[in-house]
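Lab meeting minutes (informal)
Scribe: AK
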Amino acid sequence: GAWGTQRVCVWRVAVVRTVVSHNGVTIRLTNERWEHILDRHPALHAMQDEIIQTVADPDTIYEGEHGEIFAARIEHDLYLIVAYRETSTEDGFIITSYLTNEPIDRRVLWKR
């Protein structure tokens, strides 16, 4: 809808979408990060909604090695992984996203 094309300028970075994480933190998907995702994982071009949904309503949340969080959901018989960082209790951003056929081998923080 109309909200999907809205761009808001925050800190002079174009925000494509925002979503509230499982922890209640507003997570930004910036244009720069979206371009990064598409550059490395072109198969995700039509999956922006699924990426946002994975942050909002994951099947599993894993601990990262450097303070990031990995949210995972099953999509089309694959794991959709979204790495993001919560920089405060109110703000964060998506780092990257990818599809894989194997679950992540990291400590589980939360599972549905």
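Next up, CB showed the second protein from the same session:
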Amino acid sequence: MSRFNEILDELRVIHDKKASDYGDTEFANIRASADFGVLPWIGAMVRGADKMKRIQRFVTTGTLNYESARDSLVDLANYCIIATCLLDEENESD
């Protein structure tokens, strides 16, 4: 198996573990952005932007306090996939 596919498998495992903390509805925490008038796929990208800020901080300082740069990259990848799922869902309902 290529390293790329290994990381895709890792993304799935991490996503599934984290998702179980947010409830029974898929992407429940991200979908909650709709309560504030923000489309859920955009809400996912806002969270992704938070991860980008962490990554930028790592690039400029070489350190992060609460999670590694790798963890931020993995989370960012998952947020991009979640945003894609939610955008597809929105487009299907149109």
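CB comment: The two ends are 38 Å apart (CA to CA).
No objections, moving on.
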